[in-house]
Design a protein that fits this description.
Number of strands of chain A: 0
Oligomer: heterodimer
Number of domains of chain A: 2
Largest interface: A-B, 20 and 35 residues
Largest sheet of chain B: 2 strands, antiparallel
Distance between the termini of chain A: 67 Å
Helix content of chain A: over 70%
Order of helices and strands of chain B: HHHEEHHHHHHHHHHHHHHHHH
Distance between the termini of chain B: 23 Å
CATH class of the largest domain in chain A: Mainly Alpha
Helix content of chain B: over 70%
Amino acid sequence: MEVGFYITAGVTIISTLLVITRHNPVHALLYLIISLLSLAIIFFLLGAPFAALLEVIIYAGAIMVLFIFVVMLLNLGQQTAQQEKAWLKGKVWIGPAILSTILFGQLFYLLPVAQMQAEMPAVDAKVVAISLFKHYVIGVEMAAMLLMAGVVGAAHIGQHKKVVLHRFLREGEEQL
Amino acid sequence: MLSADDFLVLSPIILLAASSVVVMLLISLKLSHRMIQVCSLILFAVSFASLFFIQNLLPYYVEPLLVIDRFSVFIMGLIIFSGMVVSVFSYIYFEEKEESPKEYYVLLFLCTLGACILAISENFISLFLGLEILTVGLYALIAYLRGRHHNIEAGTKYLILAAFSSSFLLFGMALMYLQTGGMEFSSIASSLRKELELPPLFLTGFGMLLVGLGFKLAVVPFHMWTADVYQGAPTPVTAFIASASKAAVLAVLFRFLLQIDGFRFKLILLIIICIAVASMLIGNILSLQQRNVKRILAYSSIAHLGYLMVAFLPGNEMSIRAVSFYLTAYVITTLTAFGIMIVLSAKDDDAEDIESYRGLFWQRPELACILTASLLSLAGIPLTAGFVGKFYILASGVAAGFWVIALILVLSSVIGLYYYLRIITTMFSGTKPSVTTEARQHPFYYMLSLMVLSGLTILIVWFGVSPAGLMHFVNDFGLT
């Protein structure tokens, strides 16, 4: 188990360093996914399988996919096709592939071992739910208000003003 | 589960949270700006009034996140009061601007809520959540007039620096949790009680916590953002940052330090002394050269936070009183000064240049007198609240034997006198009609703002002339 932790921690640090040194955002995001996945394994090793699951589902799954979509959508243009070809070159995915293979191998080693070990009580979904909605229910409410502040602020900063132009003007603008 | 008493004692917080939702619903009904402003004023008044109803239940613990004692109710009162005053001033300011000002009130309520949570938090979790509610609301408020470059620039600066300092704060909390095994201030205190020397891991964590909170307080060396953000933000938002957000963060830092009995450790004491001395001197010296009133007030707020850190040092009952008194004086005075700037602001010009105050006394004597009173109080001239506050800090510092720090405080206030007096002399010299005296478009709100400003001025003078009332009130405070 000790060895497993150090391998995973190493993978985390390497992939996170690669995140902040890549020039291309998509490459950086690929490494960020690896970093989050290895964090999930660290959570698993610490006896928190539920937190590990959430890490994979929410961060590596939902949020990162959203990121990648946004980044790809922002690059709309004529060069998009060539860019996508360039993104799929071998040296781009070989690094993340090696790191994730290490993590995958660990997973196969860890799963049977973890089931045999029972000295550490696992923090499962039930325990998390009880602590969130019983002891820290006010904290959950506060997090809700935090999200509301973020949403209202983003809605205000991002809202578009309707530009009302006469159609002649609009045509003239298009010709320009 | 929450009991009935929990709900009762948390009613100010719940009311603030509900107000933001109510205002959002009112916006969806497409009510006018005036209606929304009046409603938010009433809602602020209701949550302020609810503070008086929970007095008999104190002190009260809402395990494991919050503690509500007399000190925190007092700080909450200051915060909600400044939110209310800011919302009065906001009408005039935003009615003339191009953006729809309605979401502004939702965000103002949320920021006030975050600040109040900070004031009553007794746990790292609620500390962080409260701080983030406050900061996330402020990001949007600072960049509210998003068509203007200054606003966007200030908002981006604040966003990047605040996010960075939050990460410091989180890592510091994690390290302290690693050392002590608790997130509650009380359990951290009980784990530290056995230690004679500060464990290095805890010290590292505490340092990072100070980076995070020091950024929000804008004390030297984390003060770089202050002048730019103060200048770029809409003036009512600047007033809110300078008063409520500072008061909340200061209160939670003070509670943490007192609860873990941090002043027992020489190293923590040394760190606080260094920050205080640097803030007092650098804040006052940097504002000497400024020509922009907002920037002058920004640097002077750095110095004032330095004075408040000096009030921390004795770490006893006396310092709670000194902090409460000085904070009250500072919040009221700052609100007054920014209120005058808001009343003088035109559509495109925020009345920030010192030249726009030339000859103000000969055109608008009432505004000039109010601004003079508030600047004199900031400078600490006798017969104002600022003087009594400074006297209180000096008395508590000298009683605990911090002679050198007290001398530095006096010295730096003398430096500060120069730039406050410069604004005052500008107001009384010349007769150039620089402030356009057009007919006010919003006579009702103009009168209301003037009444609030006069009320605040009366408070400044009253606390300065007969401070016994507030002192008596403050004397009952003790952290439980």
